[in-house]
Amino acid sequence: MGKRHLKTISSPRSWPIGRKKKYWIVRPNPGPHSFKESLPLGIIFTDLLSYVKNMRELKKILNDGLIKVNGVVRKDYKYPVGIFDVVELSDKEAYRLLYNNKGKFYLYKTDKKNILFKVIDKKVFDKNNLQLNFSNGYNILTNKKDIKTGDSVILEDKKIKDVFKFEKNSTIYLTGGKHVGVIGKVKNVEGKKVFFTSNKEEYETLKKYAFVIGKEKPLIEIKENEQD
Questions:
Q1: For 58-114, what is each residue's pLDDT tens digit?
Q2: What is the pTM of this model?
Q3: CA nearest 143: which of 155, 131, 153, 135?
Q4: Fewer Cβ close by (within 10 Å): the C or N end of the chain?
Q5: How many C-alpha atoms does 154 have within 13 Å on its Cβ side?
Q6: What's the CATH superfamily of 2-109?
């Protein structure tokens, strides 16, 4: 099968697939997300949504321009979709890719198509602009110099519509660690550690796992630990 496919048994543990049902599975192409932190469109539409029976059917839908990821038409069945990305079908249905409490991907049906971007790095571009680099591989230039690493932003027409600061009382979603899939409120940040509360209990996690999804309330809808 070569580089086009992957042995199912070798797929990332985050992929919610039946490892004994298939010997080969679609391998995602290089893209905005890493191999372990993404799912190819081929798996999303055959295994998770069961909209098509095979890749031939999916390729026809893709070639017709009926599938979008974060508002952009995608025609590659190996295109990698990552956490918080929104997949649309014919502008009628939209799904957000999330993790459940076992660290496996699942699709959450949504009517809100806001796309969140986590700032993982920033560089001085010139005296008036910064280049913000996001966790999904995107980057933009902005003159908003108060944005820091760890903050999240919403983009609209390649411009920053809103900023969610990584600070006390911000709402976070855990994308890794033993609390993956949990929603909490930041209590304190100490170096690489984040202390947060969830359901009136206090926990700690690493800063790299905390994804700000709102100020006091989450911007996007998530039913915590919705699926097994």
A1: 999 999 999 999 889 999 999 999 998 999 998 789 999 999 888 999 999 888 777
A2: 0.84
A3: 131
A4: C
A5: 15
A6: RNA-binding S4 domain (3.10.290.10)
